[in-house]
From TrEMBL:
Descriptive protein name: DUF308 domain-containing protein
InterPro entries, A to Z: Acid_resist_chaperone_HdeD, DUF308_memb
Pfam families: DUF308
Cellular component annotations (GO), alphabetically ordered: plasma membrane
Keyword Translocase tagged: no
Keyword terms, alphabetized: Membrane, Transmembrane, Transmembrane helix
Keyword check for Transmembrane: yes
Transmembrane segments: 12-31, 37-55, 67-90, 96-116, 128-148, 154-175
Signal peptide interval: none
Amino acid sequence: MFHLSENNDQSFGWGHFILGILFIILALFAFRDPLASLMTLAFVFAIGILFRGIYQLMVRHRLKESFGIKPTHLLIFGIINILLGLYLVFKPGLSASILPFIFAFWIFISAIFGFMSLSAIKQVSTPLFWLTLILNIIALIVAIFLIFNPLSALVSLTFLVAFYFLLSGIQHIIYAF
């Protein structure tokens, strides 16, 4: 479907698949133990954010090598995700108190990135376009909830973030095929 193989044929998109599996594992972890320490949650999700940023830079490089295009938004979002992931890894105590806002803005930025990708996805598959559109609308709703309800978001953060990672993981696995 919508993955970046060497020659853009029907080969399997391992990057999307691995990222999807990682996000689903993160979601299951959050669903399984919602009372887990926010410190642990911040660290575990920081690794996912860090890998996503690295993957975005890899996709940008592949697009440049394969098609001669250099999407600036992939560079920007990749760097933002790497910096955010590193921040969460090295400052878990401080980040736990602002975790709802960090996740809200990260989910918001990811949804914007998803919306920016819609035109390319529509050229590949109309059903995939609609799925991506719906998933990104849900992501925006989750982000807005987290921004405007930080106290209640702190209580339900693990469920909201787990739900987002589950949807994002499913989306990446679909892209792999």
